[in-house]
Amino acid sequence: MAVNRVSSNIEDIYSLSPMQKGMLFHCLYAPDSYIYSERSTLTIEGGLDIDALKRAWEHLCQSHPLFRTVFKWENVNDLIQIVLKKKSPGFEIYDLSSFDEDERSKRKKDLLDADKRKNFDLAKGPLMRLNVLILGNNKFFISWSYHHILIDGWCQSLVMRDLFVSYIAIKGGEPLPDIRRPQYKHYINWLKKQDTGASNRYWAELLQDFNQPTSISIENRSKDPINVEIAKHTILLSEDVTTALQECGRLMHVTLNTLIQGAWAILLSRYSMQEDVVFGVTISGRPSSLPGSDEMIGLFINTLPVRARIDRFDTLQDLLTDLQSQSLRIQEFGYSLLTDVKACSAVPGDVDLFKSIIVYENYPTDFKDIVDDGSMRIIDNSIEEMTSFDLALLVIPGSQLEMTLQYATDLFDSAMISRVLFHLEQILRVLVSDPGLSVSDVDMLTSDER
After folding, report:
1. Rounded to an integer, what distance in angstroms lies between the CA atom of residue 54 and that of residue 416?
2. CA geometry: angle at 218 spanning 215 and 222, to 5°?
3. pLDDT-derived band of residue 366, with 50, 70 and 90 as boundaries?
4. What span, in angstroms and rounded, lies between the C-alpha atoms of 188 and 170?
């Protein structure tokens, strides 16, 4: 009887994408970890109608299948995700308006910390929740938490836009908008048609003789690597340096992303004292050959390896041209499963293929223009992302290039991370000043360090 009740609530069933499979594996391996719990926050000023917001949130849940998705891995032939017909989304309200500013800040922090520690049940859901904190003085704080297995960064602005379009319609007494986006299952079906043989041949050619991951840390973990503390440090390049980098990329016929990869490859080589380095790059994974992929709500990103052989006789142009070529091939085989890719290398089975990744965030991260309503405005927003890698370089392009290093605190201290970012900036400055240099002539040290 219980089985029939469950079956009657099933709308759809389909398999997982490569990145979803990887995340599910890590979650099953470390069920208490919150490494894939992510959060977007908004601070709103003005007259927020919380009842209308809750109705809009529920409308999104019914409009987007991913909001009603759970996962099954036991007693099935393959990992599957199940779209339920009905699943109430998490929605909580906390009124902090009666407290003074210090107490309100403390309680806000405590609520957010408790929310972060609240694990998602992948088998039961819901896998996202919205918390509304009433701050007083016509200010509200919205925390949208979700499991990364559902969506990626590209989706955040899509979801927020749909939420506030629905909110404004409800508040104005208009009919609920008919939100229709291409469904994520179309991407899963597209994946089944891809040539895995061609991708495996490419990765084998690139990695078959690579046998040691590139690390710049001392491998001496004293803590549980699953729940290790993650910290971050950010630098902002000047407008002049950022403009010079963009111009340098145009002259060398490579993207700004490739310039960053080239600088990171040189830095890894110097720190690890290896001439053959591998690091991961996170790609959007939204195939141009799949109609409507840019409008889909779902997890498309993938993290795949880049290999750089630092030949001291090569010029910077040689290195960057090779990395640009690899970027094109990675886009072509962006659907590859990382475990299959690693199997194409000579790295032992229980060792990670790479220790560091670069995430070039070329999607909207500022939500301030999303709300088209004179009664309120978004005055601040942030996106909190976690990583399962020792070191993650997050790059946000703009008039001033922003670079953030997320790092495992049991492997790195803040002083070393600050030094790494300083050296990375030094390499980029050298690259801009003389792109014709050989790789061996790139100097990242100050006179005092030398």
Report:
1. 45
2. 125
3. low
4. 33
